[in-house]
Amino acid sequence: MVAGPPPRPADFRLEAGRQGSEQAAVGASSPQPTARGPRMAKFLSQDQINEYKECFSLYDKEQRGKIKATDLMVVMRCLGASPTPGEVQRHLQIHGIDRDGELDFSTFLTIMHAQIKQEDPKKEILLAMLMADKEKKGYIMASELRSKLMKLGEKLTHKEVDDIFREANIDPNGKVKYDEFIHKITIPVGDY
Q1: Are the C-beta atoms of 39 and 33 separated by less than 8 Å?
Q2: Whole-angstrom Cα distance, residue 2 to residue 96?
Q3: Is 185 helix (H, G, I), strand (E, B) or coil?
Q4: Tens digit of pLDDT for each residue in 108-145?
Q5: What is the pLDDT of residues 8-36, one digit of tens each?
Q6: What is the DSSP string of 57-117?
Q7: 162 vs 148: CA distance, rounded Å
Q8: Residues 29 and 13: beta-carbon distance below 8 Å
Q9: Closest CA to 161 of 184, 178, 143
């Protein structure tokens, strides 16, 4: 997949959000889609931007509005992104920042947007389940899913898998349909 050009710092602007809340619009401002891809449009809430700014500020040791390129991966991971070292290097190269350089908050927002956009949990879960379903039945057995969750990636414990199964209403001896499972486990948690 070829991504469009990264948004420019001027592309981050506050707009009056839906239902009275403010959201920041992040997107390329070109009037028509480019040959490299469709026009990018993604919204970050003001709370997300504040959270990003707070974490960014922790690594802005000299209070100059910049962090070191070497701190980028740590800051991104603190905010829930999961970039690989190669992805971080690619983000820096796109913005013309060398390993010993620095980046400002606007550039950081652009990089976070690009990373979050490519980290689609629903797609990642679907791909993992498709790889487990050799016969392409549209489901896998709960026992097989349990095994995968306990052996691959961030390995889960029996209790953690039991909790997931309970929340998703999965019979431990039953079948797990992809679409239902993905929908149940990726529903955003409500603020109470």
Answers
A1: yes
A2: 19
A3: helix
A4: 999 998 888 777 666 767 777 777 788 888 888 888 88
A5: 444 444 333 333 333 333 433 333 333 33
A6: HHH-TTSSSEEEGGGHHHHHHHTT----HHHHHHHHHHTT--TT-EEEHHHHHHHHHHHHH
A7: 13
A8: no
A9: 143
